[in-house]
Amino acid sequence: xxxxxxxxxxxxxxxxxxxxxxxxxxxxxxxxxxxxxxxxxxxxxxxxxxxxxxxxxxxxxxxxxxxxxxxxxxxxxxxxxxxxxxxxxxxxxxxxxxxxxxxxxxxxxxxxxxxxxxxxxxxxxxxxxxxxxxxxxxxxxxxxxxxxxxxxx
Length: 153
Hints:
This protein is an alpha/beta fold. It contains 5 helices and 5 strands, in the order βαβαβαβαβα.
């Protein structure tokens, strides 16, 4: 199984990118993992047009065979152990999985419609670059839970 994180935007602040890269490297011990950063629609920033453009960019990068999980505040919330069990089901299904995170304005209706499920990291609103870090850390934590390793205490 291949697990990909497709996310709009880059961390220009430098705060999150090193930590995301660290957890991505750790995840590669367990499965094929890739972070794909896609460009923001800067020309139309803050408008519905930006969300549409970013959604189209995301959809163009999703393989038709991939199972899509959209990060969305209205999605299902899981504990770390519950997320690990959910990932275990994805692994057993044998399909590649694409987790998608929209830009500052979220995901387009078309991108949300392509998702097989929606996942919320928290009921609180997180900066989308911070959400990327939280997600990658939780994916790593989930893999250590599934392997019975001591990271999750």
